[in-house]
Design brief:
The structure holds 2 protein chains of 2 kinds.
Chain A lengths: L9 E4 L1 H4 L13 E6 L21 H11 L2 E7 L4 E6 L1
Antiparallel strand pairs in A: 1-3, 3-4
Chain B lengths: L1 E4 L3 E6 L9 H10 L22 E7 L14 H11 L3 E7 L5 E7 L43 E10 L1 H4 L4 H27 L4 H7 L28 H4 L9 H13 L14 E6 L5 E8 L8 E9 L6 E6 L10 H12 L1 E11 L4 H5 L8 H13 L6 E11 L2 E10 L1
Antiparallel strand pairs in B: 1-2, 3-5, 4-5, 6-10, 6-11, 7-8, 8-9, 9-10, 11-13, 12-13
The chains are: A alpha+beta, B alpha+beta.
Chain lengths: 89, 419
């Protein structure tokens, strides 16, 4: 259904995280939403910051933070401007 | 749960009893260590306490269904505000909506203007693209740059009391049946196409090669995509992957895609209008659904990419669904209320709230310096018409409408109940 072009986002699945995943005990839907800005816009990063800013950080590094939050990465859609992580608790 | 990483900001949205705020310090440290964002709380980046200085922080949530089951700083809004106040200066905490009903919490800090670099000529936007009021005294510093991505707007629809008959589509059992019907059709078509293109290979041989349906035999064995080929823990074996694109190779993802299309979510931002859109969806066992959408702006190379995210808990005793997007209303070719109606029609909630966060084009400082660009009558009229349309969501009665003018943003909270 997609018409892949050069800028098409790319999906990577972490199969290991999906094994034996069971959400029978999920009961609290309402989410906690945190948005942290480090600059006013993607093209206004502070001097000295890596060219791609937060997108230069490896997925493995984010996983250390997500461990503190009690989330696992199921899959990632990487694109030029956004990396979208689908997570499970 | 979902996370979105942009060059300049990170959005983390987590359900259940996750301890989101306990990850915040590590996030700030990673931003300083790995992405080299500036920090001012230690002398050296090696110091374990080093934390990048955020430009701005937003934390929000709806009231929990089971607050006493939360952990750590999430035990209460008061705990969360204290946690954030201990980390950031100048934060403000709000509660929006009924105290004795559905309400919504928001914490935000003011923009940290010490972090705003003077604009270099090459990334200066052309005057026609944004309203630029050059302030000679502040070198190359333009009002439009202050805290504003272009089209910085976030819409969130938080739904509870979902119609239970409709919510069945977010259960594995139901979705497997839908998929089975759909993929066995597709498998049949794939087989025919392969037979035609291979020419001399007869269809019978093709059937045996694909070890699927034993076509025409007395005890015809239906080509069941899931039980036939997936190993005991539900993970596909290589033979399946011929049927699914390389990256839809777990049951949860494959069924998530089936549900995303069947329930109409994929049509909120259709690939006919957003050819490079990508939806990553997952159906949990035994139920529950999550999806992220990455929506590159159509036919504007290099223009911003936007996202949407959906999380669904279908069980009757705690039913909930959320939809969030920053795709600008004017880009979709539809009114914001039409997007809301589309989403609400998918989940059929008994009650829902809508928060619309819109960056204001005239900034706080611009107003102070008396440099506010007169908002054209046309823009004001459009905003009024757009707002009026939000009052009528088919099948629902708008109960509350609460407006907050925050530093740099207008926040409009609306609450609806089924008629």
């Amino acid at each position: 259904t997609f018409s892949p072009s050069e800028g098409t986002p790319h999906l990577t699945i972490n199969r290991e995280a999906t094994i034996d995943l069971d959400s029978s005990n999920a009961f609290e839907g309402p989410e906690k939403l945190l948005e942290v800005w480090f600059a006013p816009a993607a093209d206004a990063l502070p001097p000295g910051t890596k060219k791609n800013g937060l997108k230069a950080v490896a997925a493995e590094t984010w996983k250390e933070m997500l461990d503190l939050v009690n989330c696992k990465v199921l899959s990632v859609v990487e694109s030029e401007h956004i990396d979208a992580y689908l997570l499970s608790e | 749960s979902s996370m979105f990483v942009f060059p300049h900001k990170l959005i983390l949205k987590t359900c259940g009893t996750t301890t989101l705020l306990l990850g915040l310090r590590r996030m700030l440290r990673i931003a300083a260590m790995e992405a080299k964002f500036p920090f001012d709380n230690t002398d050296s980046v090696e110091d374990i306490k080093t934390a990048a200085t955020p430009y701005r922080v937003f934390y929000s949530r709806k009231n929990f269904l089971f607050p006493d089951k939360q952990h750590g700083p999430h035990r209460s809004w008061k705990h969360e505000v204290k946690f954030l106040d201990d980390m950031f200066a100048g934060g403000s905490a709000y509660m929006v909506g009924k105290m004795n009903g559905d309400h919504w919490y928001l914490y935000l800090t003011s923009p940290n203007t010490t972090l705003t670099p003077p604009r270099t000529p090459e990334n200066e936007r052309s005057p026609t693209e944004t309203k630029i009021l050059k302030i000679p005294s502040i070198s190359a510093y333009t009002v439009s740059q202050r805290g504003l991505e272009s089209d910085d707007e976030t819409l969130e629809v938080l739904m509870t009391d979902l119609d239970q008959e409709n919510a069945k589509q977010f259960y594995l059992e139901h979705a497997s049946a839908v998929a089975e019907g759909k993929y066995s059709d597709r498998a049949q078509r794939a087989r025919k196409e392969a037979a035609n293109s291979l020419g001399d290979l007869s269809e019978a041989m093709m059937n045996s090669t694909l070890s699927g349906t034993t076509a025409g035999s007395a005890n015809e064995e239906k080509f069941d995509v899931f039980s036939q080929t997936s190993s005991e823990n539900g993970i596909y074996t290589p033979e399946d992957e011929a049927l699914f694109p390389e990256d839809l190779s777990t049951e949860g993802h494959a069924l998530g895609t089936v549900v995303s299309e069947a329930c109409g979510l994929s049509d909120v931002y259709p690939t006919s209008r957003y050819p490079d859109a990508r939806v990553d969806a997952y159906l949990f066992t035994p139920c529950g659904f999550s999806a992220n959408g990455v929506i590159p702006a159509p036919d504007q190379a290099g223009a911003a990419t936007h996202y949407f995210t959906v999380h669904v808990t279908p069980e009757a005793q705690c039913s909930y669904a959320s939809f969030e997007t920053n795709v600008p209303g004017r880009q979709t070719g539809r009114e914001t209320c039409e997007v809301i109606e589309h989403v609400v029609n998918i989940f059929k909630p008994g009650r829902f709230s809508v928060t619309l966060f819109e960056a204001k084009s005239d900034t706080f400082e611009a107003r102070e310096l008396g440099l506010v660009a007169e908002q054209s009558a046309e823009t004001a009229k459009k905003a009024l018409v757009r707002s009026a349309k939000m009052e009528k969501i088919r099948g629902y009665r708008r109960v509350d409408r609460i407006v907050h003018e925050l530093d740099g943003y207008d926040l409009v909270f609306r609450y609806y109940e089924r008629e």
